Amino acid sequence: MSHITFANVEVTYPGGLKALKGVDLEIPQGQFVVIVGLSGAGKSTLIRTVNSLVVPSAGDVRIGDRSVTRARGGELRRLRSDIGMIFQTFNLVKRSSVLRNVLAGRLGAVQPLRGVLGLFPKADVAFAHECLRRVGIPEKAFARADALSGGQQQRVGIARALAQRPSVMLADEPVASLDPPTSHAVMRDLKRIAREDGITTIVNLHFIDMAREYADRIVGMRDGLIVFDGTADDATDQVFEDIYGRPIDEDRDIRGRT
Amino acid sequence: MAVPDRGVVQGPPARPVTATRFLNWGTWGAIAVLFAVSVQQTGFNLEVVGQGMGDFLRFFGRLAPDWRALPQIWGPLVETLQIAWLGTVFGTILGLPLIFLASFNTTINPPVMFVARSILTVMRSIPDLLYAAILAPILMIGPLPGVAALTLFTMAVLAKLASEAVESIDPGPLEALRAAGAGRNRMIVFAVLPQIGATLTSFILYVFEINVRASVIIGLVGAGGIGNLINRYLSFFDYSGLGTLLIVVFGVVLAIDQLSVWLRSRLI
Amino acid sequence: MSIKRPADTIPATPPSVRRGNVFIGGAALLVLALTIFFLVTLDPLPTWARLQSGFERSGLPLLRGFVNPNWDVFPLARNAMIETVFMAVIGTTIGAVLAFPMAFLAANNLLGSRLLAFPGKTFLVGIRTFPEILFAIILVAATGPGPIAGILAMGINSVGFLGKVFSDVVEGIDAGPSEAIRAAGGNGLHVFFYSVVPQVLPEFASYVLYRFEINLRAASVLGLVGAGGIGAVLIQRLQFRRWTEISMIMIVIVVVIIVVDTLSSRVRRRLV
Hints:
Chain A is of the alpha/beta class. Helices cover 34% and strands 24% of the residues of chain A.
């Protein structure tokens, strides 16, 4: 049975822009899926329908047998707390400590008032430290987030997502703000953790070489539609040229070679 | 959706006591103590506040406007705006040299900069109404002390704001001109003014907004403008006249503010 | 060495540039005309003789006072200045406490629409339109003279200022962390306490300190209209033209304000 199911998902933004034009996709438990495509192809929109940060105007997104799209209020928050998310710009509160940023991942799980007051149970605090250990920066727990390098900040982002004990992980261009060596280190961490915990993961990537290296499965998007769906081996240069709509040698940027 | 709980959880490391944390708590503590002492020393308490605000609101009821007072108000109102305008213009003219003397990248030499900055610091620490109160007996009752007070006030505020802008300009053009053999004045005209022109104009408008408010009140200490009339209404208990005056002032200040804000938004 | 160039190789000034020049020239002319008009209609302009006598009777004694201030009045001035600082502390605190909720009620992004923020914004503009001294004289007339009137006047005015700058800060925050909290299953309160508050608090603190600098200046002159503080001591001396005492009081005011300004701007630089 598939873990994440997109059923004919359409998104029309206020103002009339059709970002998704009917997407059908089934992702089994534990798969590491990379979505590629030009900016504006609908990758970010697709990933945000999984936790309803963008609500589809038609169709349905389900996790297991529960519809995220139909969920509201407390039910939606419970579903979201099962879905970790990592962002291109990290989205940390820069002036808060690393630990507090990671604990924010526990907010969906603790009693609302305790969360507001910052009175996390000891076990949650200990788990937050454990998450930082897993991404390799346990010593940074009490540093301010803005004192960290870009790669470290993204690791805090991953730790925050891990703190949710998620079964699904979404990553929206997680390495686009990082330099190539750091990008690979962060992608390796992400892949390793996803494998160890059996987390179903969807990653948006701009770089095709990186997609080939890390993906169990590559999904190509263009103009709000899925135009390719296959393994890394199936994704030849010809396939990528079709997805991007131009020869890849012209634009070294999308190869992402270091 | 069972996620394996990674069992080996060691206790979290203790939060280190850093100098910053210590300083933070110290600061909050100092603020709390300062507030407590202030409350105790000024006899401030919620009862007094409640009473004060009650009196204040009741008093507002007595300010019912009487539009027959309008003809009395126009003259002083125009004088108020005159004072604000002239103070801003003269303050800008006299303040311009100080701006450049007080900025590290356009000053003549460090001692000159130090002197210019010290003068500005002292001038800036004197409130507008204090200038007016001191100058009124020296320059005689009337609009002149008001203009002089706002001129000094404008110089200080404008030079402070603008010299920060001058110091943050792109040094490239300055270097290019210096390389081409330009002198200090030429560098200011060709490299600095084009870069800060819009910002400077915006600051001047901003100071004008402040000066309009100031020119309303400096008459309270005899420095001309509508403040004189406020004093007179108060001493004759003519509260309906005062109410009319306040509404007119409110409208005029608001209109000038909006115009100035609009102009400033077009500038930058 | 001269560069020879025939006149016809100079391109014509494009109309957009010409319009800009005309606009700037027109604005300059308008400013000049208004200035001259205001200058000649200034009434009454004191005669030179009166200015001279004013300077001799008041200006010179004041200047002499700065060189040789009257220390007898120092204890009185010092105590009055301390009271002034206390007034500014309370006035600023009132303003900050009341402005905190106001800021969120006047922020477009937090309320989700301009329309909802409009009443809050209008209220703040209304307060800011009046200078605090005007509030002070009304309060003095309504409740009687004393520091409480001055404190309340500063408090009211500070709400207008701080509410405005606070709501600007709130409108300028990064939406990313809020999205992250929502994505992790947090509710509105979580977004507020984990994303909004930590982002805005240092800037809030910085503006409160800045407002304290402004309020200290205001508190120094509130006494001129009967609202307590060192201004009350000053206005008595001014009425009797005791210039050496006036200069002593002014020195106390200036020194305290400069010290507080310096400390405050140090702390503000560390904050943001």
